[in-house]
Amino acid sequence: MNRRFFLKTSASVLAASLLSQQAYAKKDLLVKYGGSAWLAHYPAYLAMTEGLLAKHQLSQDYQSFGTSSARMSALISGNIDIASTGAVSALALMARGVKHFSIIAIPESFGKVEGIVARPGITSIEQLKGKKIGVTFASSSQLLVLDILAQHGMTPDDVILLNVPAPELPSALKSGQIDASATWTPYFEHTLKQEGATLLADDTQFKLYQSHNVPPGPDVLVVRNSFAKKYPEQLKAYLSAYFEANTLLRETPEKVAEKLSKLTNLSVEEQLSILKGTDWFSLPQQKELLTGKYAEGVQLLADLLVQHKQIDKSPNVKEWIDTSFI
């Protein structure tokens, strides 16, 4: 065989093989996502179940975590690639100087799906003095409690704060083990449904919500930096699919409510109420959210966490924000 022809043919075969391998790798790139039944994970869940990721030649391993802190631990250890997380857990890691992740998007803003619910007979914040409040420590709900108490001239010493995992709060309130519960959806709705329960405050009363539309635990979409560096184009594609799902949540909530009920175990009516009570942001909004007033609010949130002794120091949040994928 002519040596030049052999080399040319071999090179062509090798090039075709490499292209085939690259296409195969792209088609089968599995994104490991950290989620739960909380509303911030609806876009990732729908992007997966509605085939939006598949259109971008991506697939997703949807892993559930009970808390944002557990989710962030999995992210920085490399067990997951992308996650939506309450900003409180992210800020706690920032305060320690952890640089393994970046904030790449803001999925939504909520105000009425997290709050303080009291048992029958308690109808005001002032009546909580000396009472037991169940709340998951180091969470957005704990910050809400601290802020609401301060607004009413009270301190944590005026109440008994008990650290209770969010899934256990509805039963703890119902059985009388606690006098009030502070938690988020879907457990928030489960406490509200209890006979005689009273809503004392929700996130719309949080001071940064009133000034910056930022709740006590704003959700941020984060990525492990090593994953972003290795797969920048796939990450952009992931965000495209993610915000296509946000469009469904914003524009056609009736069509997706039943599908999401399989994730949350809420009734379709409850699910629809949550969808309509949430501001689902779009991809074109992201640049402004990540660099404007909303980001300023997240920085003020970090300062507030220091004030309430939840973290030791306030990080410079913008050092963790990366807008290059939008």
Structure description:
- There is one protein chain.
- With 326 residues, this protein is of the alpha/beta class.
- The protein has two domains: 29-109 and 216-320, D-Maltodextrin-Binding Protein, domain 2 (3-Layer(aba) Sandwich), CATH 3.40.190; 114-212, D-Maltodextrin-Binding Protein, domain 2.
- Helix content is 47%, strand content 18%.
- The chain contains 15 helices and twelve strands.
- A five-stranded mixed β-sheet has the order 2-1-3-11-4, with helices on both faces. A five-stranded mixed β-sheet has the order 8-7-9-6-10, sandwiched between helices.
- The chain starts with a helix and ends in a 19-residue tail after the last helix.
Radius of gyration: 22 Å
> Which architecture of the largest domain per CATH?
3-Layer(aba) Sandwich
- Looking at this structure, what is the CATH superfamily of the largest domain? Periplasmic binding protein-like II
User: Any idea of the CATH class of the largest domain?
Assistant: Alpha Beta
What share of the residues does DSSP label as strand, in percent? 15-25%
Backbone structural class? alpha/beta
Average predicted local confidence, pLDDT: 91
- How far apart, in Å, are the first and last alpha carbons? 52 Å
